Amino acid sequence: MNYVVAPSVSPVIPVSGSEQMFPVHRIYCVGKNYAAHVREMGSDPQRDPPCFFMKPADAATTSARIPYPPGTKNYHYETELVLAIGKEGRNISAENTADYIYGYAIGFDMTRRDLQTASGGLGHPWDTGKGFDHSAPVSSIYPASVAGNMENGRITLSVNGELKQDADLSQLIWKSNEIIAQLSKLYLLKPGDLIFTGTPAGVGAVLPGDKLLATIEKLGELSIEITEPE
Ligand code: MN
């Protein structure tokens, strides 16, 4: 093939305990999926149901060094359980989603909160606040066959050793199976899709030099350092 520009290559995520890699197709995200976080963002979990948005596939990165992004003065972490889809499907029943989950990961839905807040207030899309370079750091993928049941388990985030987020996956408003069922009514889910399931309360701003350490029980940890802008 004779390309006019070099074709881009999808990010690949290592599979824990294996030499195999998970190629990223799309990144879907769920917003407003823990009640305490919905309230800290000034919304009402009864009135505002979870919402979907996307990040570009090449926002996914396993780099431990994440450059501070341009265009923001309020750059936030959001620690999330990530679903890694292993099978194509649409209109998937919520009772039948287990076959579609290849595995799980820990992810950061990094957010330019000032841009997200401004666009939301204007009724504009969230894209500049949510979908930007390096905005989806992820851990290795842990196969579902090894991780087991992820309907509960502690999820934490520390910044420079100080605990900032501490919740349990059982507090998700929409569970993993419901997220897959809902998303698959809107999109053809494909192997390689990642789904960020939403963050608990305790989000906050970080600056160059800050070290973030996320943990999810039954998975492992994800450690990144924010570095100077590129
Ligand atoms: Mn999020």
List its traits.
5-stranded mixed sheet, binds manganese (II) ion, 5 helices, Fumarylacetoacetate hydrolase, domain 2, 230 residues
Layout of helices and strands, plus pairs?
Elements: E1 12-14, E2 21-23, E3 27-31, H1 35-40, E4 51-55, E5 60-61, E6 65-67, E7 75-77, E8 79-85, E9 101-108, E10 111-112, H2 113-122, H3 127-130, E11 136-137, E12 142-143, H4 144-147, E13 154-159, E14 162-168, H5 176-186, E15 194-196, E16 204-205, E17 211-216, E18 220-227
Parallel strand pairs: 3-15, 5-11, 6-18
Antiparallel strand pairs: 1-2, 3-4, 7-10, 7-16, 8-9, 8-15, 9-12, 13-14, 13-17, 17-18
The structure holds manganese (II) ion.
Manganese (II) ion (MN) binds next to strand 3.
Describe the structure.
The chain has one domain (12-227): Alpha-Beta Complex (Fumarylacetoacetate hydrolase, domain 2). Helix content is 15%, strand content 33%. Strands 4-3-15-8-9-12 form a six-stranded mixed sheet. A five-stranded mixed sheet has the order 6-18-17-13-14, with no helix packed on it. A three-stranded antiparallel sheet has the order 10-7-16. The mean pLDDT is 96. It is built from five helices and 18 strands. It has helices at 35-40, 113-122, 127-130, 144-147, 176-186, and strands spanning 12-14, 21-23, 27-31, 51-55, 60-61, 65-67, 75-77, 79-85, 101-108, 111-112, 136-137, 142-143, 154-159, 162-168, 194-196, 204-205, 211-216, 220-227.
